[in-house]
């Protein structure tokens, strides 16, 4: 069995994700397929003795999409993989989350992003041999948002904002 991540082109919505997963899972030799719309990628586990990467690409093409065979993610040793959790001030809608995620994903070395816009939180998994936290913070700041690592500072700012809102509510009463 081989497990690879491939870039997928042509997806426009969640229905596209379902279509690609369905055609892959119906294919002999494919054990699992997980398509991610946000990262435009597919994680496919398959038996190389039954189906080749080029055949996977043909199957995805028959559904109206393009799977890049030469675009497998570079695997790096797990010692270089880090996760950072942060507060992203100003990211309070799906549109904002999309902008932040798009900015982050332009960096090479990003493995995964998990954005929670209602709580203005982001978790980013990245390869520290290719980039560092300040690189991630810079692209978020350049996109117009304020990232703060979740180790006290973010909670302190939130507490101050909460106190200010409570003061404003008392004044309005």
How would you sum up this structure, described in words?
- With 173 residues, this protein is of the alpha+beta class.
- It has five helices and eight strands, in the order E-H-E-E-H-E-E-H-E-E-H-E-H.
- The strands form two sheets. The protein has a four-stranded antiparallel beta sheet with strand order 2-3-1-4, with helices on one face.
- A hairpin with a 4-residue loop joins strand 2 and strand 3.
- The longest helix has 20 residues, at 153-172.
- Residues 72-77 have low confidence and may be disordered.
Task: Tell me the Rg in angstroms.
Answer: 20 Å
CATH architecture group name of the largest domain: 2-Layer Sandwich
The percent of residues in helical segments reads 25-40%
How many helices?
5
What is the CATH topology descriptor of the largest domain? Alpha-Beta Plaits
In oligomeric terms, what are we looking at?
single chain
Bin the strand percentage: 25-35%
**Biggest pleated sheet:** 4 strands, antiparallel
Count of distinct structural domains: 2
Q: Count the strands?
A: 8
Helix-strand topology string: EHEEHEEHEEHEH
Structural class: alpha+beta
Concise overview:
The chain is of the alpha+beta class and 173 residues long. The protein is 37% helix and 29% strand.
């Amino acid at each position: 069995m081989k497990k690879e991540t491939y870039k997928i082109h042509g997806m426009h919505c969640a229905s596209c994700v379902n279509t690609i997963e369905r055609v892959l899972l119906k294919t002999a030799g494919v054990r699992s397929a997980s398509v991610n719309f946000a990262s435009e990628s597919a994680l496919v586990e398959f038996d190389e003795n039954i189906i080749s990467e080029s055949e996977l690409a043909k199957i995805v093409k028959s559904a109206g999409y393009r799977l890049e065979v030469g675009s497998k993610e570079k695997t790096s040793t797990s010692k270089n993989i880090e996760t950072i959790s942060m507060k992203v001030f100003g990211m309070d809608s799906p549109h904002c989350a999309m902008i932040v995620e798009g900015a982050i994903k332009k960096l090479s070395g990003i493995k995964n992003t998990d954005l929670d816009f209602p709580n203005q939180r982001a978790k980013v998994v990245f390869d520290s041999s290719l980039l560092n936290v300040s690189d991630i913070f810079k692209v978020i700041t350049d996109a117009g948002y304020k990232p703060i690592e979740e180790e006290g500072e973010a909670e302190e700012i939130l507490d101050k904002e909460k106190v200010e809102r409570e003061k404003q509510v008392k004044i309005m009463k």
